[in-house]
Amino acid sequence: MNEAVLLDTDVASFLFKKSPRAKPFQPLVRGKQLVLAFVSVAELFKWTLKRGWGPEKTAKLESTLRRYVIIPYDRDLAWSWARVVAACEDNARPIAPSDAWIAAAALRHDLGLATNNLKHFEAAETLCGLKLLRPVSS
């Protein structure tokens, strides 16, 4: 299997929409197995409802997601999440629950995380050893 990279929900969205905002992430994902945490799938599904996507666009998202490896919940992931949240809270750097699940998935599976929201994850990088993959500037 090719090297894998975990995508934050925002990067997965950029790639799905073929947004110009995906360009700085192309070198990070090219030739890699793309991975999402279960929570990112839920966030993408929520967006289809909030933005009133029709059946065609929703089906396209579902089809696209079949090309990703989806990290499901398991006991070790829950412990990883607990460690991330506890470390961030103990250092007065709280992390949103969904971001903590994404960070925990990257840590649990030893994956780099590609995100456009670096500030959301910097505490987990510093405190827990999360490998943040920074977008490439043009």
List strands and helices in order, with pairings:
Layout: E1 4-7, H1 9-17, H2 26-29, E2 33-37, H3 38-50, H4 55-65, E3 69-71, H5 75-90, H6 97-108, E4 112-114, H7 118-128, E5 131-133
Parallel strand pairs: 1-2, 1-4, 2-3, 4-5
Give the mean pLDDT. Answer: 96
**Separation of termini?**
29 Å
Number of strands: 5
Query: What's the alpha carbon Rg, rounded to whole Å?
Result: 15 Å
Order of strands, widest sheet: 3-2-1-4-5
Share in helix: 55-70%
Keywords:
5 strands, alpha/beta, five-stranded parallel β-sheet, 55% helix, 138 residues
Detailed description of the structure:
This protein is of the alpha/beta class. It has helices at residues 9-17, 26-29, 38-50, 55-65, 75-90, 97-108, 118-128; strands at 4-7, 33-37, 69-71, 112-114, 131-133. The chain has a five-stranded parallel sheet with strand order 3-2-1-4-5. Helix 7 (118-128) links the parallel strand 4 and strand 5. Helix 5 (75-90) crosses helix 6. It is globular. The mean pLDDT is 96.
